[in-house]
Amino acid sequence: MLFVGDDWAEDHHDVEVQDDSGRRLGAARLPEGVEGVAKLHALIARHGGEDLEPEQVVVGIETDRGPWVQALLAAGYQVYAVNPRQAARFKERYGSSGAKSDKGDAHALADMVRIDRAQLRPIAGDSEQAQAVKVVARAHQTLIWERTRTFQRLRSMLREYFPGALTAYAGLELTSTDAMELLVKAPTPERAAKLTKQQITVVLARHRRRNRDQKAAAIQTALRDHQLDVAAPVADAYAAAATAHARLLIALNEQIDALQGQVKAHFLAHPDAEIYLSMPGIGEITGARVLAEFGDDPTRYASAKARKNYAGTSPITRASGKSHTVQARFVRNNRLADALQRQAFCALQNSHGARRYYDKQRARDLDYNPALRQLGNRLVGILHGCLKTRTLYSEATAWAHHANLAAA
Question: Are strands 78-81 and 12-18 parallel, antiparallel or unpaired?
Fold first, then answer.
């Protein structure tokens, strides 16, 4: 077998090829793209000989996506996506000085897949449809996070010169497009106090708000309340910055809505969508996010426990001497954890079994979040069973064991 360490950068890759004994057979710096992949194949062929099969080539690289990784998988190589934290800890065995080089990183990655690949996770062979879901679902969630960050900056700004706007537009949801349009129309307290009820109503009507007259009257009243004054030049400067942030939020709202349609379309086109949607607490967006992070390779998770461990919902045990504690996992896929937390919360509303299980955890004196995490962990196990057997979720089957225990 051959073991390849690939330390990638934006425009090149430093690679090292080793044999079974760890002897370095060759090293090179390869350009990104088709030319680089061709040179890598030639390097492997030169040192592997004619009898080398693609599956006898093991590659370690600190990423799991991109055209380069897809080219390695298409060639039939075993590719392991090494967590950068794992690689950093592994390299500490070479010395404690903290020295670093791209060639040294490639050497360490080759050593890792040669010595410790049993502890590493190979890149899953997800279908093209699952990869498409992952791209749009992650992009959609990233834009939502960016909207939150942008609004927090705007909110901090408004508190410094125009806190009345936060009160006036609270009933519209502060990140909504109509609230931002009103802020752009009147970004200072002086101009906002001059807004007429008709002007406010027109904006609300354009976005199909209900009870427009009452909301417009409430907004107008709040904007005309007295507040502490800020010097005119300072207020104008703040207004220019606030307007820029408000226009950015309007654009983000538009793109989030457009991308949401793409997320639903790609998710519903996946053959597993029906199974995901049968689960309690999962809708089209949450289902797309969970599918995107779990992938659809049927061989990726050997058991329900393996899927739970990857999800980060299963607890970890810390035992040393007389100390023995069970704690939540905090090193995890945050995108997946967020989606599963949302699913568990929503499942409380439409699944009697999930509600009973949650109440049982609370009865054990668990706080809200640990109990919800336990429910999420149970739902991941149920999802694993449904995907493995290709069956839809059944309330009676999923919670039969816990119902029997409760009856006993």
Answer: unpaired
Decide which of 3.30.470.20, 3.30.420.40, 3.90.79.10, 3.40.50.1370 is the CATH code for 2-123: 3.30.420.40
Distance CA 353, CA 312 (A): 22
Count of helix runs (H) and strand runs (E) in the chain: 19, 7
What is the residue type of 109?
Answer: L
Contact 52, 73 (CB under 8 A): no
Domain parsing of the chain, residue ranges:
2-123, 132-265, 274-319+331-407
Residues of the chain below pLDDT 70: 96-98, 330, 402-408
Q: Identify whether the C-beta of residue 1 lies closer than 8 Å to the C-beta of residue 57.
A: yes
- DSSP tag of 56: G
DSSP 317-340: EEEETTEEEEE---SS-HHHHHHH
Residue 138, helix vs strand vs coil: helix
**Residue 315: per-residue pLDDT:** 78
Distance (Å, whole) CA 398 – CA 384: 11
Nearest residue to 333 (alpha-carbon basis) of 316, 301, 310 = 310
CA distance 172 to 175: 8
Angle at the Cα of 141 (from 135 to 146), degrees rounded to 5?
A: 120
What is d(CA 112, CA 16) in angstroms, rounded to the nearest whole number?
12
pLDDT at 402: 66
- The torsion angle over the Cα atoms of residues 220, 225, 230 and 232, rounded to 10 degrees, is 50
pLDDT at 408: 45
pLDDT at 114: 93
pLDDT of residue 86: 84
Asked whether 240 and 233 are in contact (CB, 8 A), the reply is no
CA separation for the pair 396, 391 (Å, rounded): 13
Query: Tell me, what's the pLDDT at 7?
Result: 92
Predicted local confidence at residue 403, as pLDDT: 60
How far is Cα 358 from Cα 346, in angstroms, rounded to an integer? 12
pLDDT of amino acid 404: 59
